[in-house]
Amino acid sequence: MATLADIGLAAAINILSAFAFLLAFAVLRLQPINDRVYFPKWYLKGVRSSPIHSGTFVRKFVNLDLRSYLRFLGWMPAALKMPEPELIEHAGLDSSVYLRIYLIGLKIFVPITILAFAVLVPVNWTNTTLENSKVEYSDIDKLSISNIPNRSQRFWAHLVMAYVFSFWTCYVLFKEYEIIASMRLHFLASEKRRPDQFTVLVQNVPPDPDESVSELVEHFFLVNHRDHYLTHQVVYNANKLAKLVKEKKQMQNWLDYYQLKYDRNPSKRPTTKTGFLGLCGDKVDAIEFYTSEVERLSKKAATEREKVKKDPKSVMPAAFVSFRTRWGAAVCAQTQQTRNPTLWLTKWAPEPRDVYWQNLAMPFVSLTVRRLIIAVAFFFLTFFFMIPIAFVQSLANIEGIEKAVPFLKPIIEVHIIKSFIQGFLPGIALKIFLIFLPTILMLMSKFEGFISLSALERRSASKYYLFLLVNVFLGSIVAGTAFQQLHTFMHQSANEIPKTIGVSIPMKATFFISYIMVDGWAGIAGEILRLKPLIVFHLKNFFLVKTEKDREEAMDPGSIEFGSSEPQIQLYFLLGLVYAVVTPFLLPFIIIFFGLAYAVFRHQEAMMKDTLERAKEPNLDLKAYLVNAYVHPVFKDGDEDDSFSVDEEVVYDNVLVPTKRQSRRNTPAHSRYNGSSSPSLSDAIQEL
């Protein structure tokens, strides 16, 4: 059993690990060679230049200013002092709200910890139940509810505190929701307009033998939203074209690289091999080879583009429909459009940069089947993942290791090694098993067909939290393999299941303390080091970067990994609220996590507005602003041959148009569409 001394030693090890990460960050961020890794947004904004281009050779890579090392923790006060409006402007509202989650953790658990240590710890510690029993126990158990006998009057203290803690948590959440709602309204009132504020996504447009999808969408919204409809853009299945454009971009990149190399040394023509990664195959002139590859792919892309334009099967039964006002878009997005609830389905369109274009090509009717398949697959993934986790957890403790390798018992019994194993190894073992899980869950979410990156992250996050709840929380509490647990639950009364879990919760406090220290303390401190971006940047810079554009892409600041970090926060909230009454000794470890995470993530890195915009920009041409917003990126390439046009005529007059369908022969007004396709974007811009 782990003692307070063992936990203290493990805490010291994790604190030293966290400090080592912070120290490494403080040193690495000062080196000129890492400048683009730790300050990417300043480079992308053009307010910072590379120190590598100036100074002596050594100074280009190593910071020789000794005074800067004396201020190695100067980043922390600067990060904490940044005003919230400035933070929102720099990193966005989402990042600011995300940071407030850690602040909520501190607001909730600091008062709870003070109250728990003032009331519950003395109530638990002054009892003698465990001392008079024959069971093995630790000092942590004496601080927990396990030291209270059955039917004791002392349980009233725990019951009252449970209600107090719950009330305080609900109160903090209520007040914080008010703050965040106010922040959002202020942000929406002050930010620049975005295309998604005026646009909805329409899916499952019913097929019509007489009209194209574009004509059908236009007629429908001119009839049903005559005063607010502005324009639309149908969705194309351009996945194959996107692959060709991506491949062409890669070849063009290599061509630019070798051309630049030749320009620097005209006396020698660069060569390359035609095989895998240029490592094998025939040796050829690099510039000629990549020039021919670019020309070949350009022809293939042009052919595929013509196919997409002319093939009706390339047009999906979906469209992005834009309105004159935000109010018009809101009404459409939140109302049922027809009597049949399965047709003309509308919802808010994602921001253009947030669209996951590949999934827009999925047939809408297949989404239900796909999500059913993933639900079944996720169930089995969650269930069978218990087996390796339980196996590793059984080895990652003193008894398990001594049983597996008995000859190491004399070494394991050394106090410092024993403390390390009890306080560090179980958390590390579980952390290792969870490394690849977010990637697996993201692939599953993509298979389900969600059409925005943010929706994919939310879906992945929900799966990850359920996985943590079942495997990390419940799986660790209820000891044994998955099949043993299933057998236990199936062969006992349903009334006994909460009792089984309740008995096990105090016994696992030590494990969760270890997990918080490894995953929370050292893990969060490791986040600020940006070890993965640091390694990836230097690998790309050494092997792949050929132009300044490559270097900008290599230093991509990325974003907070919401799909994995947010479920982690939920797990810590769960642990804190569960153990607040049961084992209050765990609470200080939770507080340290939230405090450290707040400092670290603060460093790293949405009728009234319509009226306001008209007052500020009375001549605003909203059509021109929205017409190209939701065109597939492969049709908006900078090269002239990548421009997209599917027709020669366009109309944006807000009138009803004639239709080829017999049911609408008497529709008034005349259309300038030729009746076969959606409007030409290039002509639309000229006409506007």
Automatic annotation (TrEMBL):
Region (Disordered): 661-688
Gene Ontology MF term list: calcium-activated cation channel activity
Cleaved signal peptide residues: none
Cell compartment(s), UniProt: Membrane
Transmembrane regions: 6-28, 101-123, 155-174, 372-396, 416-443, 464-483, 571-601
Assigned GO CC terms: plasma membrane
Any matching Pfam family: RSN1_7TM
Domain CSC1/OSCA1-like N-terminal transmembrane, residue spans: 9-176
Membrane topology: Multi-pass membrane protein
Domain CSC1/OSCA1-like 7TM region: from-to ranges: 370-604
Record flagged with keyword Hydrolase: no
Family stated for the protein in its record: Belongs to the CSC1 (TC 1.A.17) family.
Domain CSC1/OSCA1-like cytosolic: 197-359
Protein name: Calcium permeable stress-gated cation channel 1 isoform X3
UniProt biased composition (Polar residues): 665-688
UniProt keyword annotations, A-Z: Ion channel, Ion transport, Membrane, Transmembrane, Transmembrane helix, Transport
Organism, scientific name: Elaeis guineensis var. tenera (Oil palm)
